[in-house]
Design goal:
Distance between the termini: 122 Å
Strand order of the largest sheet: 6-5-13-12-11-7-10-9-8
GO molecular function, one term: ATP binding
Strand content: 5-15%
Structural class: alpha/beta
InterPro entries: AAA+_ATPase, FtsK/SpoIIIE/SftA, FtsK_alpha, FtsK_dom, Ftsk_gamma, P-loop_NTPase, WH-like_DNA-bd_sf, WH_DNA-bd_sf
Number of helices: 26
Largest sheet: 9 strands, mixed
Pfam families: FtsK_alpha, FtsK_gamma, FtsK_SpoIIIE
Keywords: ATP-binding, DNA-binding, Membrane, Nucleotide-binding, Transmembrane, Transmembrane helix
Radius of gyration: 38 Å
Organism: Candidatus Nealsonbacteria bacterium RBG_13_42_11
CATH superfamily of the largest domain: P-loop containing nucleotide triphosphate hydrolases
Number of strands: 15
Oligomer: single chain
Length: about 725
């Protein structure tokens, strides 16, 4: 037994070692067969003119006997068969090709036999196949049947020549997007020596096929279901259909990922940094090459070679993520040769979005691996959007609004839109979700913040009286009792810089006041600006709006202003952004969802046509509140500071302290009231505006005034006035 086993091993070894002369690539075999069939078509065509010799004459006689005059289309059918071998994108096509040839021959021979009955123009085959149909259905129906047979044969050839690629062919042409499979051919010795050692991670861009890995990469959403206890508007609200949005088109092209991986590894090794290439993630905008540094290598050395890698890859700009969150890897993000748009439709139809517990879930886009990304506005709870002109801020705001419109009726959510540029939000005119028409000027914007502050305080009183902690618990209690519920209110500002230039102090005071307290009562802010400077995004605004979306900016300074770190200056524009929040501390690169103005108008027009002028029930949003908002917007008050002047609990005490001491300064108020300088200075400004203290005069102390009383007998009935102490 052992001897026989050894003999078999030797025989097998010898067989494996011998090269196979006919081991040609499958593509070459297909082309050879295609050429042979085209030659056969040429022989048949030449036999029509007696130019193919004796063999051609014999072939002509045989075919004429079998199919009659249909022999004259044989060259055309053979040409189609040859094209199948050259153009097909299927692996198993021989059977369908032969079937298509037979169908065409039978169809043509049969219809020729039916048209000239008795002449045998269809040959033996035409007579055999047409005779039963003529007896059963007659001439007209038989012509229709054989005409359909010819059409079916043509469709078979058309499908074979222009049909889609199956998986194996797709793997052959898109090697940069596919994992090296075990079923592939055994690598040669040269490939073993020179091929880089890494894995390519396969990315499935179709969001309908959700997996556990994909769901893990999506930003965390609430898992516990939250009931939506808002009362419905009279009549059923019609949500816009998903068909109003356009579907995804095209695929990204990453280039030669094999070569790029080898270049990255070699470049780092040239600087003494040993790395092991890992996976490759192909996204809509960039391709991320993940690598694992050798032990003892500082990440700062890798990030310092950004320009060297950009030069070696002939690609700019390159962003290095060190490390990738949740992985012991470093990611090098290289721009794709061809980008693809991320459409809003596919992201909204995703089951993760459809099944999210919160109705304030917004669409962000797709990350560097092509996985969908979402965020919950209720958990942010406010959002700051920054980026240079033309980088995608307004499109992001439109996709944010659209994603909310697909989840909420006017009973659940209302908008206040501020558009200083007057053209960005024009598509939302007369949208039922709007509390007021789109606001354009700065004074009305400040007044809207005043109204929101008043509404916030009113809601706190309502929640306090009900014993509820936030708007969700309040609505849950009230809905069970059949009482009044409160909708969410989202304020969206398209250009904060313009408003800060016109009404800087008032806007900052209003934004900070709302950002600090409005989350619990369902009021959320979305602030966008194209000038991310410290004059616009002040320290107080940054401290209270922690969730930020940053598109491409002009410099590293602007990036640090928004994100407190560099990186946004290396983005590619056109929706390429970095997202950071309290839950995602490290910036996450996302290609923002694209929605065109045409799509937005379709959605808004559908909502307006199917849900005309909303009849809002009392309790959902009382009509007098909207009227108060309109009155507030028309009010020309001096500023937000006066609106909040009496709200500082220490104002009266500061006033009494200054009048008793007959002197006023910020340092004095700091010592007496035990407060910080900023609050003391603000109190001093309030006292000055009320006429209690005089203006600052350099290093000299401020003048203090006291108020005379008309009821004082010594005042001789004069009016009240402030007099210098």
């Amino acid at each position: 037994m052992a001897k026989n086993h050894k003999k078999n091993q030797k025989k097998n070894k010898g067989k494996i070692g011998k090269p196979n002369m006919f081991a040609l690539p499958e593509e070459t075999k297909k082309w050879i067969w295609g050429v042979l069939i085209l030659i056969l078509a040429a022989i048949v065509a030449l036999s029509f003119f007696d130019l193919a010799g004796v063999a051609g004459k014999t072939i002509m006689e045989g075919l004429t006997f079998l199919i009659g005059k249909a022999v004259f289309i044989i060259p055309l059918i053979f040409v189609l068969g040859g094209l199948v071998f050259f153009k097909t994108r299927y692996d198993k096509f021989l059977g369908p090709a032969i079937l298509g040839i037979l169908i065409l021959i039978i169809g043509v021979a049969g219809i020729l036999e039916i048209l000239d009955r008795g002449e045998k123009n269809g040959g033996l085959i035409g007579y055999i196949f047409s005779f039963p149909f003529l007896k059963l259905f007659g001439v007209l129906v038989s012509e229709i049947i054989f005409g359909a047979i010819i059409l079916i044969g043509g469709l078979v050839f058309w499908h074979l020549i222009s049909g889609p690629k199956i998986k194996k062919a797709e793997k052959g042409e898109r090697s940069e997007k596919i994992v090296s499979s075990k079923e592939e051919k055994r690598p040669s010795l040269i490939e073993k020596i020179f091929a880089p050692q890494f894995k390519i991670k396969e990315v499935e861009p179709k969001i309908r096929e959700t997996s556990s890995k994909l769901e893990e990469s999506i930003l965390e959403l609430k898992e516990k279901p939250i009931s939506q206890p808002i009362k419905a508007i009279s009549g059923a609200y019609q949500f816009p259909p998903i068909e109003l949005l356009e579907a995804d088109k095209g695929k990204p092209t990453a280039g030669d990922t094999i070569t790029n991986s080898a270049i990255i590894k070699k470049t780092l090794e040239n600087f003494g940094l040993g790395v092991e290439m890992s996976e490759i993630n192909i996204g809509p905008t960039v391709t991320q090459y993940a690598l694992k540094p050798a032990d003892g290598i500082k990440l700062s050395k890798i990030t310092g070679l950004n320009n060297n890698l950009s030069l070696a890859l002939a690609s700019h700009p390159i962003r290095i993520e060190a490390p990738i969150p949740g992985k012991p890897l470093v990611g090098i993000e290289v721009p794709n040769k061809e980008r693809c748009k991320v459409r809003l439709r596919e992201l909204i139809s995703n089951p993760v979005f459809q099944n999210s517990a919160s109705t304030l879930t917004i669409v962000l886009g797709r990350d560097v691996s092509g996985a969908p990304c979402y965020a919950d506005l209720a958990r942010m709870p406010h959002l700051l959007v920054a980026g240079s002109t033309g980088t995608g801020k307004t499109i992001f705001l439109n996709s944010l609004i659209a994603s909310l419109l697909y989840q909420n009726s006017p009973a659940i959510l209302r908008f206040i839109l501020i558009d200083p540029k007057r053209v960005e939000f024009s598509a939302y005119h007369e949208l039922p979700h709007l509390l007021t028409p789109v606001i354009f000027d700065a004074q009305r914007s400040v007044n809207s913040l005043k109204w929101l502050t008043s509404e916030m305080e009113r809601r706190f009183d309502v929640l306090s009286g009900n014993g509820s902690r936030d708007i969700n618990s309040y609505n849950a209690k009230v809905s069970k009792e059949g009482g009044e519920t409160l909708p969410y209110i989202v304020l969206i500002v398209d250009e904060l810089a313009d408003l800060m230039a016109a009404k800087g102090r008032e806007m900052e005071a209003g934004v900070v006041r709302l950002a600090q307290m409005s989350r619990a009562v369902g009021i959320h802010l979305v602030l966008a600006t194209q000038r991310p400077s410290v004059e616009v995004i002040t320290g107080l605004i940054k401290a209270n709006v922690t969730s930020r979306v940053t598109f491409q900016v002009a410099s590293q300074v602007d990036s640090r202003t928004v994100l407190d770190m560099a990186g946004a200056e290396k983005l590619l524009g056109l929706g390429d952004m970095l997202f950071v929040s309290a839950e995602v501390a490290k910036p996450k690169r996302v290609q923002g969802a694209y929605v065109s103005e045409k799509e937005i108008r379709k959605v808004v027009d559908y909502i307006k046509s199917e849900n005309p002028a909303p009849q809002i029930e009392e309790g959902i949003l009382e009509n007098h509140l909207a009227e108060e908002l309109e009155k507030t917007l028309e009010n020309e008050s001096p500023g937000f500071e006066d609106f909040l002047a009496g709200e500082d609990l220490l104002y009266e005490e500061a006033k009494r302290t200054v009048l008793e001491a007959k002197k006023a300064s910020a340092s004095y108020l700091q010592r007496r009231l035990r407060i910080g300088y900023a609050r003391a200075a603000r109190l001093l400004d309030m006292l000055e505006e009320q006429g209690i203290v005089g203006p600052a005069d350099g290093a000299k102390p401020r003048e203090v005034y006291f108020k005379t009383d008309t009821n004082n007998p010594g005042n001789n009935g004069e009016k009240d006035e402030w007099q210098k102490v």
